[in-house]
Specification:
The complex is a heterodimer of chains A (about 210) and B (about 180).
Chain A lengths: L15 H17 L14 E2 L10 E5 L5 E5 L2 H14 L6 H9 L7 H9 L20 H12 L5 H7 E5 L5 H13 L4 E8 L7 H4 L4
Parallel strand pairs in A: 1-5, 2-4, 4-5
Antiparallel strand pairs in A: 2-3
Chain B lengths: L30 H20 L2 E7 L17 E6 L4 E6 L7 H4 L1 E4 H14 L6 E6 L5 H13 L7 E4 L3 H14 L3
Parallel strand pairs in B: 2-5, 5-6
Antiparallel strand pairs in B: 2-3, 3-4
Helix pairs in contact in B: 3-4
Classes of the chains: A alpha/beta (about 210), B alpha/beta (about 180).
Chain lengths: ~210, ~180
């Protein structure tokens, strides 16, 4: 019987194309992901099953574990208006340079009576060294800030504001602080806001999991 | 793996004894590079999706319109109290002075889901009402967790409300905490 010769083919496959794809994807993912800015205030938010993404532009109230409250005005178009309004209504008498310095800082976390001296000095106070905005029921300055915010967003911008109000709190923040923050919103007739949470999977077999996805 | 691929370079066949000049192929085995590429992709995909912040909606009731406040049927009410050290206390309806120790029960966040669900299933939906009260020693996490439990159990909005804690409830929590040694 004559031998049938089977031509031996190399098992080597050209990997160039695959390599191209891999690195293309890699480049895409690196460029497409948004870099999270380094967090100045260490806050670990609680988790919830909510799957709505937090908005990028926001008026954010941060509650730290040690009970300090900070305000971040994330909407650059109205930031100046809010700060000017607060300066006016609280009669702080900040000068142009002092206002400019306040507008530059990411976190607002000083009581109104300390704002002037802090802004007048050349030193920049780190948010962790700030006292936080007072939220006591007798001196709820956060409420004054929120009022300035609502003043700046009066009229047609009100709808936009509703989507921007965020509260972010540390797991260990005590309930009374959260209550005061809610109070500050309520005083300004704001009843809807959002809470920043880490997303969590819906537990298997729960009532929510049985509902049709909306 | 990293050998140079020289096999495909064979062109014309020359007879034996004819010396051919060795031509090295320029092809490199790219398999490790592909491996590395996909490894990095996997790494980036996993690390980025983990830290995505979401937002939970929060609707507060208006304080001033007392007329609009619903009267709650005692049979359909469940009061959930949040205490120190992630402890949860609860009672159904109203507390009766002579049976407090039976009615006022303590539990934790793992068990409360079943209790909420049990109440939901045993009560007509129109009567159902969860009243959430937070002690000043409870944390922000606790308040969010209990609201989250409400959405996990698909309690319709309007059937749960956060209410300020009363002095009696506060004292009861304090007593129970002392008895259980929770600090």
């Amino acid at each position: 019987m004559p031998k049938v010769k089977i031509p031996r083919k190399s098992t080597n496959v050209d990997m160039t194309a695959m390599c191209d794809v891999a690195f293309l994807l890699l480049t895409f993912f690196i460029l497409a992901t948004k870099q999270k800015p380094p967090e100045v205030l260490a806050v670990t938010p609680p988790s919830s099953v909510s799957s709505k993404a937090a908005p990028d532009k926001s008026i954010l109230v941060t509650m730290t574990a040690d009970g300090k409250v900070f305000l971040t005005l994330g909407d650059e178009t109205k930031k100046n208006a809010v700060i000017d309004d607060f300066n006016k209504t609280k009669a702080l008498g900040l000068t142009g340079a002092e206002l400019a310095k306040l507008k530059k800082s990411e976190f607002i976390g000083l009581p109104a009576n300390k704002l002037k001296s802090a802004m007048a000095s050349n030193l920049v106070i780190a948010p962790t060294a700030m006292d936080g905005i007072p939220t006591d029921s007798t001196n709820n300055e956060l409420s004054d800030w929120i009022r300035s915010v609502t003043n700046a967003y009066a009229g047609e911008d009100q709808k936009a504001l509703e989507k921007m109000l965020l509260v972010k709190g540390d797991n260990a923040a005590l309930y009374p602080i959260f209550k005061q923050v809610k109070q500050a919103f309520k005083k300004n007739q704001i009843f809807k806001f959002r809470i920043v949470t880490n997303s969590e999977d819906i537990p298997q077999g729960s009532e929510l999991a049985k509902q049709p996805a909306n | 793996m990293a050998e140079m691929d020289t096999s495909s370079g064979g062109g014309h066949k020359k007879g034996p004894g004819v010396k051919k000049s060795k031509k090295l192929s320029t092809r490199v085995d790219l398999t490790p590079m592909v491996d590395l590429g996909f490894l990095l992709i996997t790494f980036f995909v996993f690390t980025t999706t983990m830290s995505q912040a979401t937002a939970m909606n929060m609707n507060e009731p208006k304080d001033d319109d007392i007329e609009n406040q619903k009267k709650v049927k005692e049979s359909g009410a469940m009061t959930i109290l949040l205490g120190r050290g992630n402890q949860v206390y609860y009672y159904y309806g109203e507390l009766h002075a002579d049976k407090i120790s039976e009615e006022f029960k303590s539990t934790n966040f793992k068990e409360i889901r079943k209790l909420i669900l049990g109440k939901k299933q045993s009560t007509p939906i129109d009567d159902l009402m969860y009243i959430i009260k937070s002690d000043s020693a409870s944390t922000f996490k606790n308040s969010i967790d209990i609201l989250d439990e409400m959405s996990i159990n698909a309690v319709p909005p309007g059937h749960y409300a956060e209410v300020d804690i009363t002095e009696t409830d506060r004292l009861l929590i304090q007593k129970t905490e002392e008895a259980n040694g929770i600090k």
